[in-house]
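To: structure desk
From: M.T.
Subject: fold request, one chain
Message: Could you run this one when you get a chance? Sequence is below, nothing fancy, just the single chain.
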Amino acid sequence: MPTAAELKAAKEKIQYKDGVFHFAVAGVAGSGKSSLINALCGMSNQDPNAAATGIVETTLEVGRYTNPSHADHFAWYDVPGSGTLKIPDWQYFNSQGLYVFDCVIVLFNNRFTMTDQAILMNCRRYRIPTFIVRSKADQHIRNLMKEMGYDSDDEGQTTERMYKAAREQFIAETHRSVKENLQEAQLPDQRVYIVSHKSVLGIVRDKTPKRTIDELELLRDLHNEGYKSRKHSFGVPNGAYTAAQSL
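Reply: Done. Structure tokens follow.
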């Protein structure tokens, strides 16, 4: 457990403020943490204020980001990916000061790891709410379509049927994998949200994406968690996101 001095230092490091709800996005390197945070803050990866993204891990220090529409109520934190720093996986939670956050999003891309399990275990110790999110859904579905023989010149119902088949396969595989990993770690079953950061960005910008999986539900549930704990709302404009709140 952190000492009082360590707790104070960790809060100062992230500019912790009373009345603000602090979301950390953590996980292994390359899971898409920066892109998701940019989307949640209504920014594209090319925005001058956006979190840096790249093929290799670009986050070496915890970064603090906000959406101007609710900057006084919510803050999003890009946590360095495990495996990029000279820190054993089992020390990742404490070394990054995750115990000071109000909520932790455990983000993964290809596979759910022991580090992800350890984050969830420690969050339970500290009674910190968690969300399990799988990123880059659009990329994974495209890859499955190619494995099924998809040709980019295909059009019409054939393409749509193949997309639906790949989507269903990806969702089923993700649910099964997470369930097995949680059982292996002797953790209670927990929902996994499957998202594309492009779809999240579209919703936050008050647009309706053509294809979604769990993006609306994730935004709704994040909103509810922050509201329940801090009596705030996201303050995002009407439209698609309002629809998410009403689900």
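Reply (cont.): The chain is about 45% helix and 10% strand. Let me know if you need anything else for the meeting.
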